[in-house]
Every structure is written in C-alpha cells, then in structure tokens.
Amino acid sequence: MKTTDFDYYLPPESIAQTPIEPRDASRLLVLDRFNGTIQHQRFTQIGEHLQRGDVLVLNQTRVISARLAVHKIPTGGKGELLLLKQRDHQTWEALVGGKGFITGRLIQVENGPQATITANLGGSQRLVTFHRPIDELLPVIGQVPLPPYIHTPLSNPERYQTVYATDRGTAAAPTAGLHFTPDLIEELGAAGIQFAKVTLHVGLDTFAPVTEEDPADHAIHSEWCHLSQDAAIKINQARRSGKRVIAVGTTAVRTIESAAQTAGPGEDIPEYLGPTNLFILPGYTFRAVDAMITNFHLPRSTLIMLVSAFAGRKHILNAYQTAIQDGYRFYSFGDAMFIH
Question: Would you kindly state where each structural domain of the chain is located, as residue ranges?
Fold first, then answer.
C-alpha cells in the first residue's frame, strides 16, 4: 500500500467555495460498498436509506474563532496563529504563520492580549501562553478558520457550523453534518430514526497531508473525543435489535471505533472519554459502524484512506471519478456521500 494509491486529480472548479442554500439541497451520491453500485439523489432524500431504529451518530463539536492576527514585539512583523488545542486556561497549542516565531518571542494579538511563544513543538506548531485567558474574547478577536482551499469569504460564519453544534473547541467543522437542517432532523426523528451525540474536536491532522510513501508510516496526531453513556446506550440498543449504527462524518467514525476498541469480543461499546490517535487504513476491521454519511475528501488524506477502508479503495476512487464527471461539488462546502 502506497500513499499514491489514494491519489486522484480534481479540477479546481470542482472545489465548492460557498455553502449551498438550503443546507439539505446538496447532492447525495449513494454508494453500495459491497458491489460498488451508485445512485444520484439529493440530501433531502437521505431518509429513504434509513430504517426505524437506526441510529445517526452526530459530532456536536463547535468551531471556535481560532484564527488570530498577531504581530511581533518590538519589530511589528505580522503573523497569524491558528489555535488547535487548549492545554490550560492560558496556554494553547497553535500553528504559526510567519517567520521568527521562536521560543521566548513576545507577540501582540490584534485587539487582544499579549502572548509568549513558550515552546517549539516541531514544524510550524508552537505552544503559546497568553497573558490572560482568551476563551471569551475569541468571538470578538478571532475569525472562523476556513480551510485553505476556500478562497471566498464566508458572509455568515454559522454556515461553517452544524445546526447541532454545542461543544466549543474544534479547529475545523465536521463537514458531513453541514447538510442537516432542523426540519430534516425533525422529519427523521418522526420516522423513528434515533440520534446519538458524540464530540471529537478536530485538531492538527486535518491540516497535515500524508507525505510518507507508505501511509502506515504517517503519525496521526491525537484528538480529544467523548462518547457519552447515553450515546453508548443508544448505539448498543440498536446493535442488539439488528438496527444500524450510521456515523455522520469521519470524526464520528473515529469516536465510535475508538470506544469500540476498548470493548472485549461480544461486549457492549462503553462510554469513552479521552484522546484518540486511531488511524483507519484499508485492512482495518470496523467494530461498530455499519454505514456512514461523509463528504468528498482530499487526495492522499487520512480521510480518503478511512473511507477506502470502509468501502474498498477501488469503489471509492470509482465513485469519486463518477462524481467529478457528473459535476459534484467537493470538500467542506461540497456534496455528500452515503456509504452503506
């Protein structure tokens, strides 16, 4: 297995620059992972593929305004911080944009407090200690960190949040959930579909492409996740009654499977709280996820490797080529897949 096995060419015009309105008007490519057959629908039709008692697992993480403009003291040189993970009330792991952000460097956040670079964590990652807590200031001094392939300013920052986002702390949206509207959720609930909420705060690895020749050599970074007792009960009840556990997004997949890894053979999936560095590659045996809703992912990314592990690399690459030829919109603001 090579990283190049997960490569494909995407025309730049296929990258969605703005979210579609309404959210559930996006297209839906339905892929049968066993025989590779494909259907073309709209996301409003997702209910046609769900059965009473199935559980949709949603990642309720909420994107913080994690992109901060800064300048160095005393030179005034400009730069940028992208906050990734909070260590304590005043200390964060962050990516830095700009030169000269060395350990000990004093910086000024625009419209905010001063901070000090307290450690070099390798590459462009730094440990930053702010001179006072900034949690409550972020909505005022920060910006929502859109992915680098989106060049069109977002007029409404809430469009990079799911409608059920509550747990602040992620640096990137769990974009498979962006297709859901309150009305669609209500409609599915009325049809007997269950919902289980989990949390995974997306961190550094979203911004780190796989560069190793062998993807197994790639070191995936740890991310914090939580599968609550209530969510575990719903998932286990569905499994016992022969219903499906359907992950909304790769982050939900990793949360469920991380919890499942801690259970013995035949045991229920337990509550899980803590870090996960689960890297799902082809050959992985899924313990709990029966189907997934996901977007179209970047070539050579850990995410296209995950969906390839679930549906087979050839089926995924064929579906991607079909989607490109048929004018689907790709990446964060793009269209959706239902893989079953």
Answer: 3-63+154-339, 67-141
Q: What is the pTM of this model?
A: 0.93
* 67-141 fold: Thrombin, subunit H (2.40.10)
pLDDT tens sequence for the chain (340 residues) = 999 999 999 999 999 999 999 999 999 999 999 999 999 999 999 999 999 999 999 999 999 999 999 999 999 999 999 998 899 999 999 999 999 999 999 999 999 999 999 999 998 999 999 999 999 999 999 999 999 899 999 989 999 999 999 999 998 999 999 999 999 999 999 999 999 999 999 876 666 778 999 999 998 888 999 999 999 999 999 999 999 999 999 999 999 999 999 998 889 999 999 999 999 999 999 999 999 999 999 999 999 999 999 999 999 999 999 999 999 999 999 999 999 9
3-state SS string for the chain: CCHHHHCCCCCHHHECCCCCCCHHHCEEEEECCCCCCEEEEEHHHHHHHCCCCCEEEEECEEECCCEEEEEEECCCCEEEEEEEEECCCCEEEEEEECCCCCCCCEEEECCCCEEEEEEEEECCEEEEEECCCCHHHHHHHCECCCCCCCCCCCCCHHHHCCCCCCEEEECCCCHHHHHCCHHHHHHHHHCCCEEEEEEECCCHHHHCCCCCCCHHHCCCCCEEEEECHHHHHHHHHHHHCCCCEEEECHHHHHHHHHHHCCCCCCCCCCCEEEEECCCCCCCCCCCCCCEEEEECCCCCCHHHHHHHHHHCHHHHHHHHHHHHHCCCCECCCCCEEEEC
CATH number of the structural domain 3-63+154-339: 3.40.1780.10
